[in-house]
């Protein structure tokens, strides 16, 4: 039997508290913050299996040796988990994860992960609390509406708890050839570009133009429906897209920046799940 020991303070994002965030349930699925090193390790193993095993990412020597998707941001992040309690209530049951990095946590490293791809100065100067979202994945067997909805409910509870004002991060389209994504990138630019005050812009040496074809040359509804579920989820919440895509050859993706004012997500989920969210937070 493996005994999981509690995560110690250095492994938690500054200002976060595992005990302050309860668990939300939907049938046998639950969502909460990782509470042990074993749970965090299982989340990293799930990420490795999906990013490197399914999506064709290229591991460095450390990642290949560990069989874990891991970087320095994991040590300061909170790790949101979806757990199938029919499989197990701890590390064994983890079927989905999302990495959450608050401003204070990023300050300990001197930067956010997103700053490798985007100039985020427009929002780091924003008068409010920031939350960076990343490394989202769900086990293939569970990639339906239920698990993704539960992740969003968990994020809403986290946002309430930590009084987050703006969420942001990179969302990915498959492949590293922007030419195969002309319609998707053009659609996102012309329909969901962030206002100047919230607009992230790809760093100059990685900037890929998103205005690639005539917007009248493709079926907008069909392109919208074909977008990855995570991007569609952000857009349903009223999220905005930054200026410029970025090719991430390590992860075999083409990334776009996403920004969401959290009053949009909290209003949406508070209306639907007021009692459950209150119980989870308080």
Key features of this structure:
single chain, 282 residues, Aminopeptidase, nine-stranded mixed beta sheet, two-stranded antiparallel ribbon, 9 helices, 21% strand
Number of strands: 11
The assigned CATH architecture is: 3-Layer(aba) Sandwich
The number of helices is 9
Number of domains: 1
At the first level of CATH, the class is Alpha Beta
Describe the structure.
Helix 5 (145-162) crosses helix 9 (262-281). The protein has 282 residues and is α+β, with helices and mostly antiparallel strands. The protein starts with 23 loop residues before the first strand and ends with a helix. The strands form two sheets. Strands 1, 2, 3, 4, 6, 7, 9, 10 and 11 form a nine-stranded mixed β-sheet that branches. The chain has a two-stranded antiparallel sheet with strand order 5-8. Strand 10 and strand 11 (253-261) form a beta hairpin. The chain has nine helices and eleven strands. It has a single domain (9-281), classed as Gcn5-related N-acetyltransferase (GNAT) (Aminopeptidase, 3-Layer(aba) Sandwich), CATH 3.40.630.
